[in-house]
Amino acid sequence: MKFEGTGLIFMVGVEDEYNASKITVLEGPLGIRKRPAMYIGSTGPGGVLHLLYEALDNAVDEAMAGYCKTIKITLSTNGTGDVAELSDDGRGIPIDIMPKYNKPALEVIMTSLHSGGKFNNDVYKTAGGLHGVGLTVINSLSEFTEITVKKNGKEYKMSFSKGIPTSSLEQVGETTGRGTTIKFKPDPEIFVTPNFDAEILKHRLRYTTFLNPGVRIIFVDERVSPKDEQEYFSQNGLPDFIAYLNKGTDAITPIIHFKKQVELNTIEIAIQYDKGYDEKIEAFVNNIRTMEGGTHVIGFRSAFSRAIINYMTKSRIAEKRDVKIIGDDVREGLTVVINVLMANPEFEGQTKEKLGSMQIKGIVENVVYAQLSRYLEEHPSEAKTIAEKVINAAAARESAKKAREMVRKRSIFESSALPGKLADCIEGDPAKAEIFIVEGESAGGSSKQGRDKQFQAILPLKGKILNVEKASVERIFDNAEIHTMVAAFGTGIKETLNIDKIRYKKIILMSDADVDGSHIRTLILTFLYRYLKPVIDNGYVYIAQPPLYKITKGRESAYCYSDEELETKLRGYEGKAAVQRYKGLGEMNPEQLWETTMDPENRVLKQIKVDDAAKANELFTILMGVDVAKRKKFLEEHSGEVKFLDI
């Protein structure tokens, strides 16, 4: 039955009634497999690594408790996908029966959410794996999982598939060792690309040993030939971490290191200033990297700035230069590692990228202010060096601000007018729109003709942009090509930057596949990293991969994006094919450019990510900075890694 009359139609009936019969309960592995992103962040490459990180966190928790000294990770392939194996020499997962469930503790931990030994402080005073979901999630999202436990002179084994036991817990032998080994294969039904990124994993292992001095991590990658074997170990901990982060920079102070116990919390911090301008903060809670910071970072910044400014005020250093000091001045050129060990930290989300525990903010503030104030009083020479660095930063900031205000009056940074050379797209939704940054008028013309103007914009640049690593702020803000890019993006720059105003959420750098093209990409990436870093942090920057070759045989043609692909295709053609080597995008007609490089169905894009900001900062400083000797040394050391050089 229906009633009409006001423009609304009301349906009365019971056929579509919403009642208890419509409710579905997904228990255990089924719930995790239905909504994996709730537990691991994504089903992309980051999610695959997150599974391994959960196992690593458990092994590290054993190390922090004083029971584990060696962790070994082996990556291999079984022909259908990657397999990871992680072993430790800790106490081993309990295997005795839990009366409430009439099952071994190992099976309960592997199949039940929120189970484990970290919900009180009896077994682990501090731990990174807190939610009791790590092993259950690994198990549920893996094609197979095998657990081996060495405990009390005996060795036990149990197997699972997609979270379901495929064998009972069995004693398989006797042993003199102890510890846990977990072997698993990420399920291709869940993950887009179920492979482990070795380079990102290596960064994680390196800083894990810095945070746990004395713990040895052995990494073996059997997927490559010859197999890659690395060993990570740190004797000194955070000071070694600072030395690693500041490799390639000019330090102006020694490493300042302090560690303080406050009730159940341990605050450990290492600090060093260099001649650079960036603030580098690496923050951790119970060995978990908090990439988005949190209350411990807020507490550090507040106390650090207050301690420095108070010291400078008491010693009347700043008065002589007539500058006003703010927090940004104090932290310019500062590298710091913060590691907080605490019971029951509150993270925002299962992936633990931000700390939310409010009580730790005040604890960190008190420790940092007291320790740093004492250091400055006891080390007047280093204190003077820091003060001079801060004063120079403040003076440069005020000078740059005045220069920018002058430039803005005649710049287009705050103008709503789009640059004349921009061929804009019709789409108004930034999430669906993309812009190609193209080198030269020739390639710009082809790309404008070949694009889909519904959602693809083209911005041709004239030659190589300014190297911002060497240029003054005044030159950067007065550069026409930089004006053009910022105006097209719509974000503003530096103090006026607002990432929410971005006009395209795909910024694609499209340059020739040669040395000049690589140089242009590097110059643009340097600018984006230094002045528009949020576009990289948000994953909006991509590099187009134009083909290197076109193979033609009769009426057939194909494109190759690498020398290896060319060799493979030529073998298929038995060598009887014409090969054209593309020297530039301008050599392609619009149809070829669309088909190979711009068509979302066929193109290859590489997303730019900066997971290891310290490494990126070091490379940009060395490759694009003013120190010729360091650049020459770097090129000499890495010349053997060049795979293709267009001379």
Can you put this structure into words, describing what you see?
This protein is of the alpha+beta class and about 650 residues long. The chain folds into four domains: about 30-230, 2-Layer Sandwich (Heat Shock Protein 90); about 240-405, Ribosomal Protein S5, domain 2 (2-Layer Sandwich); about 435-545 and about 590-640, Rossmann fold (3-Layer(aba) Sandwich); about 550-580. Helices cover about 35% and strands about 20% of the residues. The protein has 20 helices and 26 strands. The strands form six sheets. Strands 3, 4, 7, 8, 9, 10, 11, 12 and 13 form a nine-stranded mixed sheet that branches. It has a five-stranded mixed sheet with strand order 14-15-18-16-17, sandwiched between helices. Helix 8 runs parallel beside helix 10 (about 360-380) and helix 12 (about 440-450) crosses helix 18 (about 590-600). The N and C termini lie far apart (about 80 Å). Residues about 5-10, about 115-130 and about 640-645 have low confidence and may be disordered.
